[in-house]
């Protein structure tokens, strides 16, 4: 018998990404692509995977990944690929290019446990660099509007001049032609928060010319949640661009009821012809810096000016007063958490402070004998960083309602890492190890929030279609062979807030571009990952 294929997956139950009912079939793979789906019992291959009793689906797409640096250090992408994630999408507001010499110097200065060179200057050069380095997963990136702003005008809290805006438009065109998926923003974090709506519309118009997408961490997910959604819808309409809401959530108990209103806004916009989607993670807590509890003005000018202001006694008093006072003017993550006991400290740069990782802000405040707000300020100064933290601000009821929306997909909002080496120096949010397995195990199998075929569509073909990714997201002949074999009855997350660095289980095999990366639950060491470029890419 002649060998027809490089790899055959036999006897599986195929969920092809369409959302339609599963069916039994074999998959023949050759030269990175799916060549045939059907009865291949008479065909042969040097590698055969028996998927009897298991689900076979397209590789999962993590639409909200923070893995561009972790993959430079460890390209095996273990925490995600062991869950079936075959494509990481980077670039929430900050992208790996374009970079000025000053920005490159700042990246080097800000490095902590993970050390790396920065031989690239543009986003396209970074994508090529990572591909050449070798990684197990595919990857793609948005162009960060914050990165463009820093490139053009530093950390200034003002509108851009005409020349600065022209430069940002030029950089957007360049980034889109280098393969960016679209333009991204994070409008609660300085200096991205300094950008006005009109500025963002202008950049989105350029991305739209390349069939890109506008994706945004809204200006508010709390007290001004509805207004934040309205801004995104206005940008989408005026720029003529598809738009997505990053990590959809309603933060703070007083705002939980707004989720139904937001769903109504999105559904109404979609009914009028706007292409609006959202992504989310499967936890009631988010992760960001302790600095997210501070007013944006204190961070103007960059990190050094930020630290100098906090160390000034009079400025500190002003910061303390604003952090203590409820407001609609900016997003106070500490107040929205409701209690210092709902904030977990997760990562410090300083080894002296790392024993505090995993403790709540309330515990540390009590031990230190200082109130929570002064403790936040002290810790940021002592660590000379924003200090990573986990905030419990959401409700499970909303999570389940969000998952049921046909326009919501899944992103981890985390890096892809491993429970070894430098990764052990911090305590990440468990979403880094469990987002997708938790989605399929807890919400699909146990809670029955949505059927498995629809759940798979939302992490395969839906994001691939939204992002205009060619030959990705489906099990179809001619498509890249990104394939996951898993057991729907046993797939499960194990990472918790108390013990976050534990791999998920239930995924037996993962194939990336036709090459097995996970076999029988173990990583093969293979690095077949490719840069996946957006629709505006010009080679």
Could you please describe the fold and organization of this structure?
- This protein is α/β, with parallel strands linked by helices and 539 residues long.
- The protein folds into 3 domains: 1-58 and 473-491 and 504-526, Roll (Urease, subunit C, domain 1); 60-284 and 394-468, TIM Barrel; 289-392, no CATH class.
- The chain contains 18 helices and 21 strands.
- The chain has helices at residues 70-73, 78-81, 101-110, 123-133, 145-153, 162-177, 197-209, 225-239, 258-271, 303-311, 313-324, 333-337, 361-368, 372-383, 396-403, 431-446, 452-457, 461-466, and strands at 7-14, 23-30, 33-38, 47-50, 55-58, 60-62, 85-90, 138-141, 143-144, 182-186, 213-217, 242-245, 276-280, 285-289, 343-347, 388-392, 408-410, 483-486, 507-512, 515-519, 522-523.
- The strands form 4 sheets. Strands 1, 2, 3, 4, 5, 18, 19, 20 and 21 form a 9-stranded mixed sheet that branches. Strands 9-10-11-12-13-17 form a 6-stranded parallel sheet.
- The longest helix has 16 residues, at 162-177.
- It is globular, with a radius of gyration of 23 Å.
- The two termini are 41 Å apart.
- The model has no long low-confidence stretch (mean pLDDT 97).
Number of domains: 3
Strand coverage percent: 15-25%
Structural class: alpha/beta
Question: Looking at CATH, which topology of the largest domain would you report?
Answer: TIM Barrel
In round numbers, the mean pLDDT is 97
What percent of residues adopt helix (DSSP H or I)? 25-40%
Distance between the termini: 41 Å
Q: Work out the radius of gyration.
A: 23 Å
Model regions low in confidence, pLDDT < 50 over at least 5 residues: none
Which CATH first-tier class of the largest domain would you pick? Alpha Beta
Number of continuous helical runs = 18
Q: Please state the overall shape, judged from the principal axes of the Cα atoms.
A: globular
**Strand count:** 21
What does the largest sheet look like? 9 strands, mixed
CATH architecture of the largest domain: Alpha-Beta Barrel
CATH level-4 homologous superfamily of the largest domain: Metal-dependent hydrolases
Oligomer: single chain
């Amino acid at each position: 018998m002649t060998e027809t294929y490089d790899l055959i997956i036999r006897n599986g139950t195929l969920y092809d990404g369409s959302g339609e009912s599963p069916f039994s079939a074999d998959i023949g793979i050759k030269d990175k692509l799916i060549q045939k789906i059907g009865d291949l019992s008479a065909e042969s291959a040097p590698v055969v995977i028996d998927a009897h009793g298991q689900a076979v689906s397209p590789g999962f797409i993590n639409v909200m990944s923070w893995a561009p640096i972790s993959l430079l250090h460890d390209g095996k992408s273990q925490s995600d690929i062991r869950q079936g994630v075959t494509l990481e999408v980077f670039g929430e507001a900050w992208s790996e290019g374009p970079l000025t010499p000053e920005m490159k110097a700042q990246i080097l200065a800000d490095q902590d446990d993970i050390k790396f060179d920065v031989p690239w200057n543009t986003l396209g050069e970074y994508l090529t660099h990572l591909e050449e380095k070798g990684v197990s997963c595919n990857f793609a990136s948005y162009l960060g509007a914050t990165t463009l702003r820093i490139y053009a005008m530093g950390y200034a809290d003002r509108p851009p001049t005409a020349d600065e805006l022209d430069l940002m438009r030029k950089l957007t065109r360049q980034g889109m032609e280098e393969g960016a998926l679209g333009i991204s923003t994070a409008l609660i974090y300085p200096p991205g928060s300094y950008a006005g709506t009109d500025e963002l519309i202008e950049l989105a118009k350029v991305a739209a010319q390349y069939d890109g997408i506008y994706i945004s961490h809204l200006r508010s997910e709390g007290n001004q949640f509805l207004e934040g959604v309205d801004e995104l819808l206005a940008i989408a309409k005026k720029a003529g661009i598809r738009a997505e809401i990053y990590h959809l959530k309603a933060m703070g108990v007083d705002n939980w009821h707004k989720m139904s209103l937001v769903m109504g806004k999105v559904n109404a916009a979609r009914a009028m012809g706007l292409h609006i989607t959202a992504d989310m993670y499967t936890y009631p807590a988010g992760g960001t810096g302790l600095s997210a509890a501070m007013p944006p003005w204190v961070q103007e000018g960059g990190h050094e000016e930020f630290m100098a202001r906090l160390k000034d006694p009079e400025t500190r008093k002003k910061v303390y007063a604003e952090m203590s006072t409820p407001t609609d003017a900016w997003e106070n993550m500490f107040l929205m958490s409701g209690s210092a006991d709902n904030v977990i400290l997760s990562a410090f740069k300083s080894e002296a402070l790392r024993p505090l990782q995993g403790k709540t802000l309330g515990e540390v405040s009590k031990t230190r004998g200082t109130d929570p707000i002064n403790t936040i300020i002290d810790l940021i100064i002592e660590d000379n960083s924003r200090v990573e933290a986990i905030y419990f601000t959401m409700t499970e009821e909303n999570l389940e309602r969000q998952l049921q929306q046909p326009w919501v997909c899944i992103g981890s909002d985390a890096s892809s890492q491993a429970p070894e080496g430098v990764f052990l120096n911090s305590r990440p949010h468990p979403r880094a190890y469990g987002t997708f397995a938790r989605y399929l195990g807890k919400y699909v199998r146990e809670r029955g929030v949505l059927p498995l075929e629809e759940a798979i569509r939302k992490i395969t073909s839906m994001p691939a279609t939204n992002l205009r990714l060619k030959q990705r997201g489906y099990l179809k002949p001619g498509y890249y062979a990104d394939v996951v074999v898993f057991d729907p009855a046993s797939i499960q997350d194990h990472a918790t807030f108390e013990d976050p660095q534990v791999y998920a289980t239930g995924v037996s095999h993962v194939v990336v571009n036709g090459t097995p990366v996970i076999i029988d639950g173990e990583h093969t060491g293979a690095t077949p990952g490719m840069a996946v470029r957006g629709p505006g890419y010009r080679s």
